[in-house]
Each structure stands twice: as C-alpha cells, then as structure tokens.
Design brief:
Layout: H1 2-28, H2 33-36, E1 44-47, E2 55-58, E3 76-78, E4 85-89, E5 107-110, E6 118-121, E7 133-136, E8 160-164, E9 169-171, E10 174-176, E11 195-198, E12 204-206, E13 212-214, E14 223-226, E15 230-232, E16 238-240, E17 253-256, E18 281-284, E19 288-290, E20 296-298
Antiparallel strand pairs: 1-2, 3-4, 4-8, 5-6, 7-8, 9-10, 11-14, 12-13, 15-16, 17-18, 19-20
Length: 303
C-alpha cells in the first residue's frame, strides 16, 4: 500500500514539474522589443509587423522604425519593408470600423485602442504627424510605394490610422513624391518618376494653370502621362497638385486654389465660383476678366 502511495506522489510531482515547465515555456514565448534589446547589438533594430513576433534585423539606411519614432493618437506602431506605419486598430477587433457605417461626406470612423469605434465629424478626426498623410478609417497600411504606385487594397481588411495622401508614396517611413524614389524601383525607365507609361492615355487632362488640354483621338497611342494627383506645369513637368502654386502665371493673373472663381467677358458680373466645382490654377487678378482668347483684361476692354 505504501509503495503505491509513493508511486502516486512521484507521478503527481512529475506532473506538477511538467506543468510548471509548460507554464514557464509559455511565458518565455512572449517576445517583445524590450526583451530582445536589439539596440544593444551593433547595427540591429527591433522589427515588429502586425502578424509576427518582433525580431532583431539589420538596420537599413535612411529607414525609420517604430523603435525610432512612436505614433500619436493612442495608435499602435508596426514596421514594414517601406517604413513604420501607425494603426489604431485592426478590422477583426470587436466594435471596429469594419462594420460601422458613417456619413462619408461629413464623418469618419475613429477607434482608439481598447475602445469601440464611433463616427465623428471629419474636422475632429485624429491628425497625422506627417503633412503628407491623411487619417483613414479603413486603408491604413495600404500605401503606394515606389515598387507598387497603385496598390489594390484588400476590401475585407479595414485598418484605421494614417496613410499617404493621393500622389505620395511611402518611402523610408515618410510620404514623399515619386521623384524621390530610387530609379531602380520605378520599373520601366521610359518615363519620368512622376509619370507612368500607358497605351491608353486620358483624352483630356488639366494642367497646373487649370486649363483642360484635350488630344485628338487620332494621335492617341503609347505615351507617358502624369500619375494620379499630378499635373503638368509650364515646363511640361508632372508635379504634385500641392506644388502647382509655384506655377508662373501670365500677365494680369495670379495662382489661386479656386481658379474658376473669376468673371468672363461673356458673363460680366457673374462669378463661376462654387466650392463643389473649385479647382486650382491661374485666375485673373481682381478687377480683371477673362476674354474669349483666354487673356485677362479690364472690363472696359471686353469686345
């Protein structure tokens, strides 16, 4: 009898030791950037993606990592091959933006860590640190890059956070224009960095002056055209819309965010300005109107 009791005690002790070992092992599996201490290893940095445990990797030149810069707005920072990205939450978190419908014209969905998603007015949306970023309730992480200028976002994944504005690519963690891309990553070298090669160019496009340029269908063909979010300036270079203010306007003109907010000789006293149709370009100076030849003249000179 005593022999059986002794064997039972030994078995229980072994089970207890085994369970403790499993518990210790499970605790040991939890790896964080703090426990890795990558910064203590020469040339190493902690690298943590959305789906994998953090690891030490060789630091790339001119790339910003989460270890270098923390996200604001109670967001979570995650690393990627094109730099760090700030996320507020993932689509599979209960109460996330994935299933919340907001008024897209006036509202945006916001969700901070540990809280349920809610619709807020666009002007009250979280502000991104990078001036070339914009807050998005569903496309954070789906940024254009030098290798993939027009990524196709997964319609079943909804990550809230910051993404590059239209016409910008995430380069080394920050949003920049395509002319900052390494030439080796832009693919075909036929076109300029802010252009793309196409066999079906748009029939009409608007330049920095706000003029609509239309080509005859008879001269269509393979050509280089401006990337989305870019316009041609006076030097026939494709520049981002936000850089059009540098355009050199003609006599009696000035660059304005609302180019079409001006009067013409054919409609004296009437202004075509309406925020819904506002677009940038060179407009006539005050007290001047645009004549049928496209020049800005005094009203008294209208013929």
């Amino acid at each position: 009898m005593l022999k059986h009791v002794a064997i039972l005690v030994i078995v229980l002790l072994e089970i207890g030791v085994h369970a403790s070992a499993i518990q210790v092992a499970s605790v040991a599996k939890k790896v964080t950037c703090e426990t890795l201490k990558c910064e203590e290893k020469p040339g190493q940095v902690c690298f943590q993606t959305l789906d994998e445990d953090p690891k030490c990797v060789e630091r790339k030149r001119n790339v910003e990592y989460c270890a270098d810069k923390q996200c604001n707005m109670a967001m979570t920072c995650r690393d990627s091959e094109i730099g760090y990205i700030c996320y507020a939450t993932r689509y599979d978190v209960p109460g996330s933006c994935f299933n919340l419908v907001c008024d897209k014209k006036r509202e945006v969905c916001v969700q901070k860590k540990g809280k349920s998603a809610k619709c807020v007015k666009i002007e009250n949306a979280p502000k991104c640190e990078d001036k070339n970023e914009i807050y998005t309730d569903c496309e954070a992480g789906c940024d254009a890059s030098c290798k993939d200028p027009e990524p196709v976002c997964d319609q079943y994944v909804c990550n809230t956070g910051c993404k590059c504005r239209k016409g910008f690519a995430r380069i080394n963690g920050t949003c920049q224009t395509f002319d900052k891309c390494p030439k080796s990553e832009l693919g075909m070298g036929i076109c300029q960095p802010n252009e793309y090669f196409t066999y079906f160019p748009p029939s009409c496009s608007t330049n920095c002056r706000g003029e609509e340029i239309c080509e005859s269908i008879t001269i269509w063909g393979a050509t280089c055209t401006c990337r989305p979010g870019y316009k041609r300036n006076a030097f026939e270079e494709c520049v981002h819309n936000t850089q059009c203010y540098k355009e050199i306007c003609r006599r009696n003109e000035k660059w304005d965010k609302c180019k079409n907010c001006e009067t013409t000789c054919d409609a004296l006293g009437l202004r075509s300005c309406h925020s819904k149709y506002c677009y940038s370009g060179c407009r006539c100076l005050d007290d001047y109107v645009r004549d049928r030849n496209g020049n800005c003249v005094l009203m008294s000179n209208c013929s």
